Amino acid sequence: MILKHHLVLTLCTVYGILLKVTAQKSTLRGSSGQQPLVQNQTVTEGGTTNMTCRVEYNDQTSLQWSNPAQQTLFFGDKKALRDNRIELVRASWSELTISISEVTLADEGMYTCSLFTMPVKTAKAYLTVLGVPEMPEIDGLTKPALEGDEITLTCMTHGSKPAADLRWFRNEKEIKGAKEVNASGKTFTVTSSLQLLVDRDDDGAAYTCKVDHVALLQTPQQTTEVLEVHYAPRVAITNSLTFPQEGQYLKLECVSKGNPSPDPVMWTKDGGELPDLERMIVEGRELTFTTLNKTDNGTYRCEASNHLGTSSAEYLLYVYDPNAMGQHGPDHALIGGVVAVVVFVTLCLIIVLGRYLARHKGTYLTNEAKGADDAPDADTAIINAEGNTHAEEKKEYFI
To answer: In 3-state terms, what secondary structure has residue 346?
Structure first.
């Protein structure tokens, strides 16, 4: 009887322990598993985003989404706010997901998911709305610009959030501008200025302003303007023959570059008009001599002008006598003369050097022979020979 009583007490104790452990596990699981889980979201203005709230364990307690103004959007699957842009995506005991379309900057803020336990548990997610910058505009371009002018190009874009970045390019090569940012409500107006000292090389150059922004990863925005520059002409004369000869055909071309184009050009000889228009033919920028003769010798001048200025170039024409020049022309005669002088100088140097070496070699052999009788080697023989020479010079003979 006593044993039976102890057995009942033991069983009751074990049962109580099991109930306590089960209660503790349920409490722990309820405190962690019933905490709502959310994530921050980023969306481009005009786009669509989903707001999701989840719980791991839910004892059939309702979930609710509220906007930054603490207005209830959805309570479970029941829509509470009349806004056609907000729709239900999924509603269950473990998840409440809603969709917001055509997002505006006013939708940005902290959204709250509530789990109606005792007490109510909440989680907050921040919705970031990116303001899309407008297409940039370039101002300050004067058409046409004049060479030497100082102009300032200004690029501007509105509506970016965060502030956009503006980059300048000249014919696809990046150049640096001066940036300025101004806030306008929740968005920013960004301006970039580029100062230029215009020269003729800028004529036809393409200046591009490009907008860089996180909301434009797929569709970059840019604007391009082409600079037109007017400048005075520059002139040069090219010829078809290096050494023109009598009877040959010669063409002179007046190469002029200016904007507006300096057409037509004017040819003169020695400060006056061309003397023989039958043999001297002017076509556009070219002056052609059909048959050269000695009377064509002189200074020919080409002049080009536009409304910004006048430029000229001169060409001194000397007509050579083909008989005096020889068959190969002056260039071959000059080269032959130079080669002949070089060969003559080289031969003279070789002869002088040979005579010098031969003279010193003979002296060495003579001295060596004089002292070879008593010397063990050639150097000693030379020294002995020099000594004997001096000794012989000191001898006196009496007759």
So the answer is: helix
For residue 269, give the 3-state DSSP assignment: strand
The residue behind tokens 């840019």 is: 222
Quick count: other Cβ atoms within 10 Å of Cβ 154?
17
The amino acid that residue 217 corresponds to is L
The vertex-213 CA angle with 125 and 163, nearest 5°, equals 75
For the chain, percent helix, then strand, then coil, each to nearest 5? 25, 40, 35
Q: Which of 318, 288, 313, 291 is nearest to 303 (CA)?
A: 313
CA–CA dist 229, 20 (Å, integer): 92
Among 380, 379, 381, smallest CA distance to 370 is for 381
CA 392 – CA 399 distance, rounded (Å): 17
Distance CA 232, CA 104 (A): 55
What does the pLDDT look like over 175-189, one tens digit per residue?
A: 999 999 999 899 999
CA 180 – CA 79 distance, rounded (Å): 45
Tokens of 132: 């899309």
**Cα–Cα nearest to 79, from 69, 64, 92:** 64
Tens of pLDDT, residue by residue over 336-392, are 677 788 888 888 888 888 887 877 655 444 444 444 455 555 455 445 545 544 444
What is the rounded CA–CA span in Å between residue 279 and residue 287? 10
**pTM across the whole model:** 0.64
Cα-atom radius of gyration of the chain, to the nearest Å? 52
Helices and strands (H, E) in the chain, number of each type: 4, 25
Contact 200, 222 (CB under 8 A): no
